[in-house]
Request: fold
Amino acid sequence: MIRFEHVGFRYGVGPEILTDVNFTLEPGSFHFLNGPSGAGKTSLMSLLYLGRKPSRGLVTMFGQQINDMEQRNLAHLRQKIGVVFQEFRLLPHLSAFDNVALPLRIIGTPEKEIRNNVGELLEWVGLGDYTQSLPQTLSGGQQQRIAIARAVIARPKLLLADEPTGNLDDEMGFRLMNLFEQLNNMGTTIVIATHSHAIMDKFGHPRLILDNGHLEVQEPKSWVQRSVESVF
Reply:
């Protein structure tokens, strides 16, 4: 699904943030992205969600090289990607329900189906009583759960999440990890950037380790048996 070949990335004429990055993500794979602050994780995620193009090297996504792709074609590819940003990026004038429903409305899903799916998912993430609440009236953890629900509601082919459990307690963090596991079992390719070794150790997926702009792929030392609760 995704291939990076000798990819370098810099902002303007500054030094390279990413240097000779090479990796392949197979369809239906699940990887953690880890590394110290300043290692280039944010830059790599921006390349993965097509927010930026590489300074050099080749990036292939969904079977298409994106280096010289026009913006309208990039926009079409982005519809296949769900993203959970650290800063949430919720629309402040929309309720929790309407924020989550937005990706479904963009692709023309019938309203009856939207009501059922969005309501069920908000219940599952513990926000069934807050469907009409505006983001600014909710806590950071609640806003994070809305952002996660919005990213997964359309069952994207690729899900990218930047510290998705960072503002959550352990119970809700593991609950949402089970949601990601369920999506992965249904075929979604997932990359989660996290500093949580507890999360990475419990859910034994390969790791993309960034250090000083260089990337190494590490296979897990041991696979864990995971019990996944069905969500949809």
